[in-house]
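Review this today:
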Amino acid sequence: MIKLQYGNTNTYYVDGLLVDTDMPDTLPAFYKELKRNGLTIEEIRYVLATHYHPDHMGLISQLMSIGIPLILVDKQKDSVHFSDTIFARQPELNYQPIDENEALLIRCEESRQFFKTIGISGEIVPTESHSSDGIALITDDGNCFVGDLEPEAYIEAYGEGAALQKDWNRIRAYYPVNAYFGHINDQRI
């Protein structure tokens, strides 16, 4: 696992899979960060968004245009264009909407089987307390990539105990060791 930091959102490279991206105007910085970490664009076989807020999916359409397939979870399909109107107000970003018909559509329940075919042991679970399209990737080596899911310690402070608690209970069932967040430091759990 390699953490890539080239904007405001943490991006993770996991055995050929890119988890989250940053805003659309960050492509040059993304390429520099790949190089700084000894990676090439050709090593990225797939891209996955933990949710479809602008700062987690901004580069996806550009990556798709150069041949990197998007893994789209079925529960995210209705949210894939959530950010289109936001980006439309910023024409300088040259954002092109994602063509979800070109994505590889999978269900959470099928994710373990799919990831096995690309050499990743793990699966996707829904995490809906931050966003209805939220997901987490949990790998069998103890890592979980949770995007903007609030840390477990915030359950009471945020007053959304039921939803956030439910998400963390689901994640905890996999006995993770490390949580990798979109905007805060990684945490041992």
